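Data availability (excerpt). The following record was deposited with the supplementary files.
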Amino acid sequence: GDSARPTASIYRSSRGFRASAAPPGPPAPGGDSTTGPVTVRALLDSVRLALPDTTDFAFRPYKVRYSADYVARPTVGYQRDNFGRGFFGGTAVSLSDILGDHTLIFAGAVNGRLAEAQVLGAYINQRRRLAWAVGGSQEPFYFYAPSSYERVDLVGAPTDSGWVFTSRIRRFVVRQAFGQAYYPFSRFRRAEFGLNAVNISDATLEVSDFFDDNGFYLGSTNPQEISGPAINFVQPSVALVHDKTLFGYVGPFAGSRWRLEYSPTFGDWRFQAALVDYRQYLFARPFTLAFRTFMFGRYGRDANDFPVFLGNPELLRGYTFGSFRTSECVEAVGTRTRTGCAEVDQLIGSKIAVANLELRFPLARNVVLGFLGLPLPPVEGALFYDVGLAWEEKSIIKLRRDPGDDFFQVRVPLRSYGASIRANLLGFLIFRFDYSQPLNRPGKKAYWTVSLGPTF
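Predicted structure:
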């Protein structure tokens, strides 16, 4: 064989070259006889060219030092409205160590008063297989409380009596300290455990509009805030999660994912919450057939005190609150109502069930405008069909509503179909444009909605 070919790797140190078989240390007088002459060919035949000598490495105990992973661009603004709340803005910061074992997250946003600010602080530990997190948060939620239509005495009005319509908005400011743990069984399946200690500040905003017996508007009161007692409870949770999906530019395009979760409460509120979420993505280039079935519900004594709104582009398209007009709300007069519009009431409940079907396909990939030299963002199109249902503890569920049925009590599945366009803007934002045709709103034409975030 070739005598110049080494039988092991060659290390380079501050004292020269050393064969890996030679003991480390100072060379013998007269040179390192174990190495011999080092040729270029010998170096090239080594496992790696001029490997550093590991005997010169220094060992020091690892110390956790945090550095910023990202800082969301801070926003600050002022805009006065009828409620006198003008300031808004927020930011978020994520810090971690070089190994990614320890993470700190801080986020805050305000839209009006500091008492209604969104705040989050959390520490995440991922050193071992059982990862865990602790933290605290504050977040406001707004709900439509039951409105009323009553006959009252009108003092100082042209008539002695009339009618008052009182609309109410209920606000919860939820403050919680939480702890969570995650244990993966495999790359695709894990168990989650959580414990939340929750405090809720309850308040209701009332506005009353007065009418005479002929229906003429007489005036209204200023908004009045009525505070309720604070609510405190503890909520443990357990969940089993499976996720075997592949993500594209705007959302998953292949695989499947599901989540089963159960969480009871103990304290001032007593209810049990359950969630079932299953999603399947069938990929046949370049199309994806996406299906989701989702059910979330609260059951028990206080289940109806924390309602859910179904008319969200994330759940059921074509039934967003802002799309309803007064002409669609004639059924509300003389019936129980949360919002003053019975058609909106049917979208509110302590339980919701949703099924979504989409056919997704690419519209643009790596397209560059030649005259500008600017690449267009990846764009995806989709055709969809949505079905959703919201109900409460004493609701009556039917496939079709009969004439004379109370919209508040009798609930039927709501349906819509349409087309969607999704665009990924430089990996920073995902815009979704949905053209939806609701099937349970007679006379309502298809309309556009714009939302942000990945698809289901």
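Summary of structural features: Residues 158 and 447 are 43 Å apart (CA to CA).
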